Amino acid sequence: QVQRVESGGGLVQAGGSLRLSCAASGRTFSWYTMGWFRQAPGKEREFVASISWNGGTTTYADAVKGRFTISRDNAKNTLYLQMNSLKPEDTAVYYCNELPLATRPQWGQGTQVTVSS
């Protein structure tokens, strides 16, 4: 059973920064491409960013490109998302998961990010 625990969310003013963490256990973390996703109220869950197993390749959704940075520490089985220049539209619950997503992906509890204008 894979466990993912997201943390680091909070309330921040527009223009501020947050750093999210995702602690993974139950599977060899370093084998997998990892991704961050988010779900805003009343909207579908959407892709935010991904990082290859060794950190050599990263991809970002257009909405966050240039503002967010994904990284990982395989020794700590932890995934990170540094979020700068936050906007109210970044408000959402943020989740991590392995990529590609399973047919019926399991999700952690997520971490709430709220950006006030």
Would you write up a description of this structure?
This protein is mainly beta and 117 residues long. It is built from no helices and ten strands. It has strands at 3-7, 10-13, 18-25, 33-39, 46-51, 58-60, 68-73, 78-83, 92-99, 111-116. The strands form two sheets. The chain has a six-stranded mixed β-sheet with strand order 2-10-9-4-5-6, with no helix packed on it. A hairpin with a 6-residue loop joins strand 5 and strand 6. The mean pLDDT is 95.
Distance N terminus to C terminus? Answer: 40 Å
Number of strands: 10
Output the radius of gyration. 13 Å
Number of helices: 0
Sequence of strands across the biggest β-sheet = 2-10-9-4-5-6
Q: Which helices and strands, and how do they pair?
A:
Elements: E1 3-7, E2 10-13, E3 18-25, E4 33-39, E5 46-51, E6 58-60, E7 68-73, E8 78-83, E9 92-99, E10 111-116
Parallel strand pairs: 2-10
Antiparallel strand pairs: 1-3, 3-8, 4-5, 4-9, 5-6, 7-8, 9-10
